[in-house]
Amino acid sequence: MDLLRFATAGSVDDGKSTLIGRLLYDTKSIFSDQLEAVERTSRDRGDEYTNLALLTDGLRAEREQGITIDVAYRYFATPRRKFIIADTPGHLQYTRNMVTGASTADLAIVLVDARKGLLEQSRRHAFLVSLLGVPHIVVAINKMDLVDWDEAVYERLREEFTVFAAKLDVSDVTVIPISALNGDNVVTRSDASPWYDGPSLLHHLENVHVASDRNLIDVRFPVQYVIRPQSSAHPDYRGYAGTVAGGVLKPGDDVLVLPSGLTSRIAGIETAHGPVAEAYAPMSVTVRLADDLDVSRGDMLCRPNNAATSTQDVEAMVCWMTDRPLRPGGKLAIKHTTRTARAVVRELRYRLDINTLHRDEGAGELGLNDIGRIRLRTTQPLFLDEYRRNRTTGGFILVDETTNATAGAGMVIGTS
Description:
- The protein is α+β, with helices and mostly antiparallel strands.
- The protein is built from seven helices and 23 strands.
- Strands 7, 8, 9, 11, 12, 13, 15 and 16 form an eight-stranded antiparallel beta sheet that branches. It has a six-stranded mixed beta sheet with strand order 2-3-1-4-5-6, sandwiched between helices.
- The chain is globular.
């Protein structure tokens, strides 16, 4: 079955965890002992109802404060599709966690409290979702039961978000009125909103088309591991294992190896289940070449006439994720696909105000949760595409070498 990865986003107390709990509950994707534990915890907390948010808010600090702190991943399936959910926090101080959860999503659900409207953090998360290249957005106007399912409230918030989204790089926006607590319009259509003629949330998730979002044109295969058994059964076997990052690979295709520039032909493609006739993103495969070439981890297979850009100078937008600020001249490790190098920050072009989208070109540093445009110089060439063309080969992380902690997430804009 097809797989859809989606993430929740929005401000504090908009009902993200409750919505995920409701989806899991109504699709019968939780075990009876899990439900019993949630019911028991709800009673102990004095809740008058079964608090489905506890299905994802598992940390003690989350349950004590009633907030989401870390990203919680949950899995469920329907007859039509499999799903991986990333329940992300809404607090400003945990924006980096939200970025982590949304970075691999095909779709983002931005929740809006019908009573409070589109808040600052809701706008922040919507902007981050567009910056991260998430191609589909669902605006779930939650807690409609608390405004008596007033159609005027729905229309006002729908118009407000549509105007805001026009400033962002967003192509597909769907707005759905829901009540996550009661389950209205979550799995099935509700009679509480006779004026709404759109799909339920689950119906939309099951049918949204995501196959065309993947880049099937530019062949990109970063080599992760060289398989060389050197056994009597396979004395001459040499395979290159990795995850396809773009395009379609087939036996007989000509390929170019970066950075050497040598060319060869694909002799075969194998998976854990045996040979396959073709491979495409995000399949994990082993590729065998017709020639014995010097290919190692960090190299990339491309088409001879359609290669990735090989460069040591990178222009990128960066989400900064650590308390130690990013400043020009700072040295970091950079991890791009399967390639690792060191990098120096040559320039901080500007810091972006997410609320106003104003560019502060006089900024001298990026602090925790800041977003800005920087220019990097790396010690080794990286094989890049623009992030908007390929999220895998256009994305990277920056690592603080003193602590080995992830310091920032970057999206390639171009090369300088």
